[in-house]
Amino acid sequence: MGLTTMTARIFRPARTAMQSGTAKTKRWTLDFDPSAPRRVEPLMGWTSSADTRQQLRLSFETKEEAIAYAERNGIAYRVEEPKEVHHRQMAYSDNFKFNRIGQWTH
């Protein structure tokens, strides 16, 4: 097996379906791209890979720190900017406003 170039993805993780807040979405993450395809182990049917870098996930306070780490270690990288989502804060009492937009469905 020959020497392959490591490539990585630098991104800010999105909220999971179980999160309502922004915890763990402020930090930047560096994940390595797979260098070898996964294969099915014939006896048990499990998916496996010989590439252990796929299990490594590094976390940084800022995007600049993640980029500096990749450049210091000679890792080719790509930066994925997060999509900004703007939500209108709504109070519980807004459900009962006189001029509420939308019909009450109870």
Structure explained in plain terms:
The chain contains 1 helix and 6 strands. It has 106 residues and is mostly beta strands. It has a domain at 7-13 and 24-82: atu1810 like domain (Double Stranded RNA Binding Domain, 2-Layer Sandwich), CATH 3.30.160. The strands form 2 sheets. Strands 5-2-1-6 form a 4-stranded mixed sheet, covered by helices on one side. It has a two-stranded antiparallel sheet with strand order 3-4. The chain is elongated, with a radius of gyration of 21 Å. 6% of the residues are buried.
In brief:
The chain is mainly beta and 106 residues long.
Please give the CATH architecture of the domain at 7-13 and 24-82: 2-Layer Sandwich
- CATH class term of the domain at 7-13 and 24-82: Alpha Beta
Order of helices and strands: EEEEEHE
N/C terminus separation: 65 Å
Mean pLDDT: 80
Fraction of residues in helices?
under 10%
Based on the model shown, name its key terms.
elongated; 106 residues; 4-stranded mixed beta sheet; mainly beta; 9% helix; two-stranded antiparallel ribbon
Secondary-structure map with pairings?
Blueprint: E1 7-11, E2 28-32, E3 39-40, E4 47-48, E5 57-60, H1 63-72, E6 76-80
Parallel strand pairs: 1-6
Antiparallel strand pairs: 1-2, 2-5, 3-4
